[in-house]
Amino acid sequence: MTASTLSDSIDILHVSKRYAQQGGAPLAVLDDISLRVRAGEFVSVLGSSGCGKSTLLRLIAGLDTDYSGDIVVAGDKVRDTSLERGIVFQDHRLFPWLTASQNILAALRNAPLSAREKREAVAEHIALVGLKGFENAYPHQLSGGMAQRVAIARGLVNRPRVLLLDEPFGALDALTRGRLQNELQRIWEHERITMILVTHDVDEALYLGERVVTMAPRPGRIKRIVDVALPRPRERNDPRFIRLRDEVLADFADQDGTRREAREDRDDDRPNGGTRVPVASPPITEWRLAW
Ligand SMILES: Nc1ncnc2c1ncn2[C@@H]1O[C@H](COP(=O)(O)OP(=O)(O)O)[C@@H](O)[C@H]1O
Ligand SMILES: [Mg+2]
């Protein structure tokens, strides 16, 4: 377990990002994002497609350093990728020619461990994600959910301070998604590392996050930060959960064109989709305006 101290926080300070566009003005994707993520915290970043969530995660990961502002992790400015920050994407990105164990082992190539320690770390993380017995399976022999478990193990095997998750369950069927959400929660409780989960799924954001950061699009900016002060495991049918969900959805209604998308998100065939309640529910105390 990583020893977490206050200085292990992630500080995102006035971060703005533009992409150059051929023959046009640069595209402003992130605008003045400021956020402190506490050590060991689980933060969900929720926003509609194209609002800059992946871009923000790439900046935190150090995959892109061309931006203004600062991102400071555990006191150090992010200048590059680091073993301290694991990342999991929507597609598992496993090497098809390597087994589950070998894929996890590949992530340890730069780790200062002996061969034996690496083998032990791989075995430990295979067990952590519930894949004992599948060590020697190749990605094509694994279901989507199992492959994503391998990707999570690979993201954790270097014992990072931070795990960044970019819509990790977005490509999974409804039942598998619900199961993996529970697994991720269990792993977070066990490992106590900081997790930042990017999603456009309101339920997922509220189910997992201690705080939910909602983003507005064009350019991407933080709209609100919601404290989810509900005990775990959370009940999607808990009236408090439903109220929070509706508040978040109503918040998206203010955004040009995003209400329909958020509603559609919620109306799919997920068993965990919850019950629709009138939008005009009374104001609730769990809300906290970010500023
Ligand atoms: N490498 C890139 N070059 C130019 N534009 C990009 C690039 N990556 C993303 N974008 C644009 O930036 C915006 C935000 O993208 P992204 O961060 O992927 O959003 P999200 O993850 O919220 O869907 C989109 O309009 C997208 O088209
Ligand atoms: Mg994305």
CATH architecture of the largest domain, please? 3-Layer(aba) Sandwich
Morphology: globular
CATH superfamily of the largest domain: P-loop containing nucleotide triphosphate hydrolases
* Cross-sheet strand order for the largest sheet: 6-7-8-3-9-10
The topology string of helices and strands comes to: EEEHEEEHHHEHEHEEHH
Query: Which parts are unreliable, with pLDDT below 50 for 5 consecutive residues or more?
Result: 1-5, 257-291
Largest sheet: 6 strands, mixed
Oligomeric state = single chain
Give the mean pLDDT: 87
Distance between the termini: 34 Å
| Tally of domains | 2
- CATH topology of the largest domain, by name, is Rossmann fold
Provide the gyration radius in Å: 19 Å
Beta-strand content bin: 15-25%
Our count of helices gives 8
The number of E-state strands comes to 10
Helix content: 25-40%
Helix and strand content put the structural class at alpha/beta
Question: What is the CATH top level name of the largest domain?
Answer: Alpha Beta
Chemical compounds bound to the protein? adenosine-5'-diphosphate, magnesium ion
Summarize the structure.
The chain has 291 residues and is of the alpha/beta class.
Could you walk me through the main structural features you see in this protein, from its secondary elements to its overall organization?
Helices cover 32% and strands 23% of the residues. The chain is an alpha/beta fold and 291 residues long. It has 2 domains: 37-65 and 80-84 and 162-291, Rossmann fold (3-Layer(aba) Sandwich); 95-159, no CATH class. Strands 6-7-8-3-9-10 form a 6-stranded mixed sheet, with helices on both faces. Strand 4 (68-73) and strand 5 (76-77) form a beta hairpin. Helix 2 (100-106) packs across helix 3 and helix 3 packs across helix 4 (144-156). The two termini are 34 Å apart. Bound molecules: adenosine-5'-diphosphate and magnesium ion (MG). The site of adenosine-5'-diphosphate (ADP) has 11 residues, from strand 2 and helix 1.
